[in-house]
């Protein structure tokens, strides 16, 4: 049977040893075993390689659970999968430059251009084009941001999942991350650091972003993709 979608578009960045990330934490994949050693150990009967994975929860293309900033909120393992496989709603905010706020008026104009109203049951997919800074020193601040009044506007519209190519949504100068607080305290999930959102222009798609089921986790890298139908 043919799948119910025409195309799968990978929206995830690669994770690599020593990669840049928002918190500056270590990302490493130390080798536990290698082919040469295991071949020798088994007298040639078998050979294999295995690695350990060491990385922060909030690293690369990843999902934020409410527990990240809202103590009573759900952790990663408690998130219902139906909230992480939903129709996407691409909104073009590429006119906003680094350091600029994305205003309520910007989102209203973007939704009018898209021909669809921002509301519940979709992944509000904020396309800024700032994934071009991925892996460079500019990746942390080379982006616009979503002020709290805009964040609350989206909550009031019923948004439950916010997805973006930005490495963060808050003003980088507001170290306490008030936009994170607004969304996570209202049970809005966030998928950050997507790539290739330009490939979704004019397409209907499902956004999928499933994390590993890590008990108590506040976030987790995801393999995000668009299922185009």
Unreliably modeled segments: none
* Count of helical regions: 4
- The overall pLDDT average reads 96
Q: From the alpha carbons, calculate the radius of gyration and give it in angstroms.
A: 19 Å
Strand order of the biggest β-sheet: 1-11-9-5-6-7-8-4-10
Annotated CATH homologous superfamily of the largest domain: Putative cyclase
* Helical/strand content category: alpha/beta
Question: Would you tell me which CATH topology of the largest domain applies?
Answer: Glucose Oxidase, domain 1
Highest-level CATH class of the largest domain: Alpha Beta
Order of helices and strands: EEHEEEHEHEHEEEE
Strand portion = 15-25%
Quaternary form:
single chain
Got a strand count? Answer: 11
What summary fits the major beta sheet? 9 strands, mixed
């Amino acid at each position: 049977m043919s799948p119910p979608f025409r195309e799968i578009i990978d929206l995830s960045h690669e994770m690599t040893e020593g990669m840049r990330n928002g918190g500056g934490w270590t990302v490493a994949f130390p080798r536990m075993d290698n082919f040469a050693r295991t071949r020798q150990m088994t007298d040639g009967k078998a050979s294999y390689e295995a690695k350990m994975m060491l990385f922060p929860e909030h690293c690369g293309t990843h999902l934020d659970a409410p527990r990240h900033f809202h103590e009573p909120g759900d952790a990663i393992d408690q998130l219902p999968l139906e909230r992480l496989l939903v129709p996407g709603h691409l909104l073009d905010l590429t006119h906003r430059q680094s350091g600029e706020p994305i205003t309520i008026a910007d989102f209203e104009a973007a939704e009018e251009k898209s021909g669809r109203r921002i509301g519940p049951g979709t992944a509000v997919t904020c396309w800024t084009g700032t994934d071009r800074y991925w892996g460079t020193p500019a990746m942390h601040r080379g982006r616009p941001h979503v002020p709290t009044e805009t964040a609350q506007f989206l909550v009031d519209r019923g948004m439950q999942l916010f997805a973006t190519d930005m490495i963060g949504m808050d003003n980088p100068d507001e170290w306490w991350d008030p936009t994170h607080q607004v969304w996570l305290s209202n049970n809005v999930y966030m998928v950050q650091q997507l790539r290739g959102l330009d490939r979704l222009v004019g397409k209907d798609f499902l956004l999928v972003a499933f994390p590993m089921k890590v008990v108590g986790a506040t976030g987790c890298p995801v393999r995000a993709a668009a299922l185009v139908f």
